[in-house]
Amino acid sequence: MLKCYAKHNTDLAQVQYVLPTRSLVKFKVTTVAYKMADSSNTSSSGKELTFRLASHRDYDAVMSISEGIYGDRDYLPAFYHAYIDDPDVTVFLAMAGEQVVGLRASKIMESGTAFITKAARVAPEWRGQGVDRQLTLHQDTWVRRNCPKVKYKRSVTFADTPMSESMKRNMHYIFNLPFVGYQCSPDLWWRQDPAQLAQLEPTGLPDVVPLQDADDDFCTAVQKWLPARACGGYDGKPIILVDWEPYTLSPTNLKRLQKQSTLFALKHEGESSLSIVTTYPAAAGMQLCIDVYAKTFPTWKKHVLKHLHDASRTSKSDNICAKMFVGLFELEDSIHDFCRDTLKMDAFYESRIRADVFELKL
Questions:
Q1: Which of 8-22, 64-78, 300-314 is least confident?
Q2: Interstrand relation of 271-282 and 262-268 (parallel, antiparallel or unpaired)
Q3: What pLDDT sits at residue 145?
Q4: Which superfamily, per CATH, for 33-150?
Q5: DSSP per residue, 40-75
Q6: Which of 43, 172, 270, 336 is the most buried (most CB within 10 A)?
Q7: Which sequence spans correspond to the domains of the chain?
Q8: Pairing state of beta strands 353-361 and 152-158?
Q9: How far is residue 208 from each of residues 272, 276, 306, measured CA to CA in Å?
Q10: 63 pLDDT exceeds 70?
Q11: Whole-prediction pTM value?
Q12: Which CATH architecture has domain 176-361?
């Protein structure tokens, strides 16, 4: 399997990330700092930008331009160094002289045929000046030149935002999913004694257990709990979101995800459901990413109660910020009611949130 080697990172206020796979063939980038010769490397303020690969030494500078992003739930502090070390992740910095003013990270995936945006950042005083646009052009050009197997890129962003509208003009819109975010402190009744969550469990369902058989039959069963448009990408295969990262739903990807996240299944009366759990620390508390693809609300609840129970036992004194993608829109209202009224958690957002998924042929 042919892939690209480059150590770098990227992040923007509305885009999101992806997970590791190792390359068999690696191309090392020997040019560490370089700029294009044309005038398109000039920001709207008239200042010329240069681009280089990020390193571990750039951590503090990158964090300084990221302050306040995502309301202290930012993932980049936890993942930055892993991005730098991951041979499938490329992280470019935009520089104005010696100052870091932007970052964009991408990851090669789908057996080397696609890449996704993992992170994108622009310094507050440089926003609205075309920095991220120039970083994107630079990144795409680099991928075309160095990763000939890559045929398209995928991006995920919040719906109904300027970023989403821009992507709709320049990329192929595939579909969107509901995104639910709730947080709680350690003093909630069920945080004090996680065993009490058992009284909320639906009856008549088996336990949620670690996924063992990530085969084609299982993927076909889970695909039913996605919108029909989730198969609207260029390869016609279903796409799931895993902590904001768009993956083709396939045995290969599920087995790869098992190396960095925890996958669970519930099988009942001929139906299968899937939940994928990823955790990381942030200033606001433990970030618990739970993506559930299930037919019914009771099945969804069975998955989530297990993951909240486990998280409460391991993070007894931390806030828990639960970030959840929902495969079926018809479950969304019940999920909000359950998190708000039954679990007494606080919502991240005042309104319903969607995540838009896009592709672009290179």
A1: 8-22
A2: antiparallel
A3: 95
A4: Gcn5-related N-acetyltransferase (GNAT) (3.40.630.30)
A5: GGB-TTS-B-EEEE--GGGHHHHHHHHTTGGGG--S
A6: 43
A7: 33-150, 176-361
A8: antiparallel
A9: 11, 12, 7
A10: yes
A11: 0.86
A12: 3-Layer(aba) Sandwich (3.40)
